[in-house]
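Hi R.,

Here's the chain you asked about this morning:
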Amino acid sequence: MKAFQHKVALTVAWFAVVMHFIWVLILAGGMGQQFATWMMGLHMVTAPTTFGVFSWGTALWLLVVAFVFGYIIGWIFAGVYNWVSKKK
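And here is the predicted structure, written out as tokens:
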């Protein structure tokens, strides 16, 4: 069960990193404001956003944090799944 939990946690963590890396590329390409405006419009939300100066160092930290929190969330999800599966 622990191996399953670790695999799910890694899967969720890497998925979070890939999604945030796409966001980093959007920001690095200078398209962050346009993307955010479009995405908020899809949710029928108008909220002013201000984007700071792009930094690869900050982007790297974003990816590290996304991995760590993705792992934690995946580990918890798999643990709950294992717990619920045993109850049958």
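One quick note: The chain has a mean pLDDT of 93.

Cheers,
M.
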